[in-house]
Amino acid sequence: MIIHNQTIGQLIRENYSLSDIQAINSLLEQQNTLSFPILDNGLFPAAELISDTEYTGYSNVWIRDNIYLAYAHYFCGQKNIAINTVNTLMKYFNKHQLKFVNIIKGKVDKNEIMKRPHIRFHGETLDEIAQEWGHAQNDALGYFVWFYSKLVREEIITPNANQLKIIGLIIVYFKAIKYWQDEDSGHWEEDPKIEASSIGVVVAALTEIKQLLKEKLSADDLMYETELITVNFLDKLIKK
Question: Domain 38-239 falls in which CATH fold?
């Protein structure tokens, strides 16, 4: 094994004790390796930029990346950071819920990608970005529904009626676009095609919602307009 950094090389062992792990963790903390730039509203920009690099667009927010980071902080016991992130994402979806509604009601063709829910946006204002982008990314939406539902099920978040309405809206959107055969750009934002990885995340989200319904919610807590989200409704969507 070739080790290019002497400081790291001194910490590498055949077997690790607790003190060895603590030493590695201390080094990572000293170097700010595990520190992430975060906005006041709890969202994580893709990168911390200066004026000379602002043109790259990496000061913006990606939904998928934010769930990854929120989950990492949750897993490491920093639940307040995770809560702030998902609550602000919920505000974003609430602000732009018409994107879901128009596709559900057939007012917009789902193949008009810029009219899909945007998965990349201005983090500070929660505004959409006019630049053309591959916004058909069902996995990003699935990650949000999965993690938000998980936090509700674990009683880390207590949702209000409107927040549950947004979750119901996204679920009905998955049905409307036929997520099981929908061509999306997926995790790597590539050319649209049927992505097993996107389907898998949506199924995980629907499965988590199903558990939430069984354990925590009343029969009429989750719905969109007249569409009641029941365990049977979810089973049929999962089976697809």
Answer: Glycosyltransferase (1.50.10)
